[in-house]
Amino acid sequence: MKHIRTASFVALVTVAFAACSNNFSVFEPSPGDDGGLAGDGTVPESATGEGGGKDGASRDGTLPDGSATDGASSSGGDSSQGGDGTSASSSGGAEESGVDAPADAPDDGGGDAPVDAPKDTGPDAPPCGATGEACCAGATACTSGCCDPTAKTCVGDGVACQGTDEVCSGGSCTTCGGVGEPCCPGSTCTANGACCDGTSDTCVADDGACGGGKVCFKGGCTTCGGLNGPCCLTGNACTSATACCDPTAHSCVGNDLDCTTPSSGQQSLCTGGKCTNCGGATQTCCAQSACTGGNCCQTVGAVSTCTQQGTTCGLGEVCEQGTCGQCGHATQFCCATAPQCLGLGASAGCCDPGGDKCVTAGSTCSTGGTCTNGACCGASGEPCCNGTTCNAGLNCKGTPKTCQ
What we know:
Blueprint (H helix, E strand, L loop, with lengths): L1 H23 L43 H9 L11 H11 L2 H4 L41 E3 L4 E3 L10 E4 L2 E4 L19 E3 L4 E3 L10 E3 L2 E3 L21 E3 L4 E3 L14 E4 L2 E4 L18 E5 L2 E5 L9 E4 L2 E4 L23 E3 L4 E3 L10 E3 L2 E3 L18 E2 L4 E2 L1
Antiparallel strand pairs: 1-2, 3-4, 5-6, 7-8, 9-10, 11-12, 13-14, 15-16, 17-18, 19-20, 21-22
């Protein structure tokens, strides 16, 4: 009996030792195994009982819940189930998670990475529509301004197009500079005397109405009514009550100042708020007491009137070449009425017809005759001196007798 117990104890120790030895061999690679690498914790296919003829239970490394005898029996029996009831399919789960897993893992990124971008179908279209860029095709050629039909480019509003006297206005290139047309670049107009009205960017005719109550005057829109400025088109033409609107220059002129002389040559003076003809005989004297045509300005009281040349200005005076002066004496103008030159009888002076001035008796006149008894005589066509005498080579003939 004692020998039997000893033999049983030895057998039990041997089985336990064998089981422990098999458990550590799980982590050692065996020659010919097709499983995982050493130390990576994976179990080769041969350890699961799927190949190589090795017992899968002996590789499990766990003792069955039953007796040692059951464990020994299971180590030599069917590998499909161990003593603890674990089936071989559970070992197969280890196979899937260990060996098969690398096959199920995705590629390093080549297959699942998104496509970078679609392949280019052609060169990018050049930009269009903005100022300075090409006009776009379609209904909206430019985002603002105009499409210059000559250059095929977009230009800004108010900028010159390539056509002659054309500017971008209202969304299209149009002619500029004429009356009623848009102003050309630089606020200029091509029509003679026209002005660029800044309130409407439109060209206005000379003496036409600009915005803000201004008037086109000498090429610019100007405030009206002031002296030397344009006449207003509505209401009072000039601000000052005594000023005049010059009908020729269309400007305001101060009182007693000359208005512009028109092409007819007739001068006029601003008087009483109106430009009035001046300078002619019997007309009002012009500014600075001037008269036209050799007439003389003669003032009587507050009225200044032009006296006709050759007529009496006053006592003993005559109007000659725009000046009233004494008359009748030698070298003076001939008086307007007889006697034209002073002196009596044979000493009377003569009015020289060539210079309208008096010469003394016995002096030679500009005609070649001689001053005798208050008249030049003896020259061709003149009366015979004393009724009988003519200059050399001439005869006293006819009735009345003249030198011929």
